[in-house]
Amino acid sequence: MDNPFALPAAYREVQHQAWRFAQERLHPLLQRMDDEDWYPDHVMRELGQHGYLGITADPAYGGAGADLFTAGVICEAFGYWNLNVVAIWGPHENLCLNNILRNGNEAQKAKYAPKMISGEWVGALGLTEPGAGSDALAGMRTTARREGDHYVLNGGKTFISNGPVADVLLVYAKTSPERGAKGISAFIVEKGMPGFSVSQKFRKMGWRGAPTGELFFEDCRVPLENLVGIEDAGVSVVMSGLDIERAFLALGAIGECQRCLDLAVEYAAQRKQFGQPIGSFQMVQAHLAQMYTELEAARLLCYKAVWECNDLERGGGGRGEIHRLAAAALLKAGEVNLMIVDRAVQIFGGSGFMWDTEVNRHYRNAKVTTIGGGTAEVRKLIIAQELLASAGLSREQEERRHVAGR
């Protein structure tokens, strides 16, 4: 009998190819990205040339026509060799392109998908605002006012991955502010549209080389045809992507965890103290055993979450089992990521504390997995609320049930 918990052969082959590609083409970029906060502006076109953009897109647009689970196992492979590149590729592939593919109309997909799949255009998602992180929907202040054949956007977005380099952005704004989270609409904004600007690029302790910035919209004129979905129905676009984002981000962290475990095992086998490899000491063995056990448990949960995302209908997500499961996957991946990188640095000792060692780079990256895609605290709230709702306990505030959590 085949092992039902093993990765099917077709996915293993895809992951193996992605692993080899990332080893050869992405890993060599990591040191310079981290040391210099260098953005490799060639990397998106290279990913497009090798078929790693538009993984879930219809072949008619140049995509691979694969499922989200395929994208997930690729993300895990990329995360193993260079999670900093994942912080560029993921927002483009998952947060922007996949959202347009799932929620945009045919004209929008035909216009934007081909150039995003080739890597000519870089994508980003504009949701988080200053003063409204985990409460991204109800706390949103950016507005969009219809004026003739355009919407006029005013406001700002912050902590936007790819913001400083993006050509295409999926931006959320309130078209009916009096309706709160139920008055939000989604728009495709292009670099160069009048009134759109990038105010600054942030300096981060991790995910270096993956540009994160602050955006401003000052009477930014966006054509009517760039409205995604229906006016005031943007919350469904948001929620359809958030669960996928959490499951997707979690697998990148799993890849990083595996890399840190492998580095720690190799170092423990080679590094000698008191005349013998430190891997022969029971305390080091205990660290390695716990790292392995927690990683394997987290990986299975993350695989389950991404697999369930395959069945999300258009505009689906944001409630029920998948909402709970995606939050749980990222919660677990974040906790395990922090534990594993901490133990890896401990095993490396003094050299692990040095800025330019690889485990140190992973250590600085790991914290964001407890923050991005909804903080660990928000993930716990989602899980608990969904558990209580399944038991028949009503929610008193519908908007807060739809916390975007970024």
CATH architecture assignment name of the largest domain: Up-down Bundle
- Calculate Rg over CA atoms: 21 Å
Low-confidence stretches: 395-399, 401-406
Percent in helix:
40-55%
Mean pLDDT: 91
Structural class: alpha+beta
Instruction: Look at the structure and name the CATH superfamily of the largest domain.
Output: Butyryl-CoA Dehydrogenase, subunit A, domain 3
Tally of individual helices: 12
Q: How much beta, percentage-wise?
A: 5-15%
Main beta sheet:
4 strands, mixed
Distance between the termini: 42 Å
Please, could you describe this protein's structure?
The chain is of the alpha+beta class. It folds into three domains: about 110 residues, Orthogonal Bundle (Butyryl-Coa Dehydrogenase, subunit A, domain 1); about 100 residues, Butyryl-CoA Dehydrogenase, subunit A, domain 2, CATH 2.40.110; about 170 residues, Butyryl-CoA Dehydrogenase, subunit A, domain 3 (Up-down Bundle), CATH 1.20.140. It contains twelve helices and ten strands. It has a four-stranded mixed sheet. A four-stranded antiparallel sheet has the order 2-3-7-6, covered by helices on one side. A two-stranded antiparallel ribbon has the order 9-10. Strand 2 and strand 3 form a beta hairpin. The longest helix is centred in the middle third of the chain and has 37 residues.
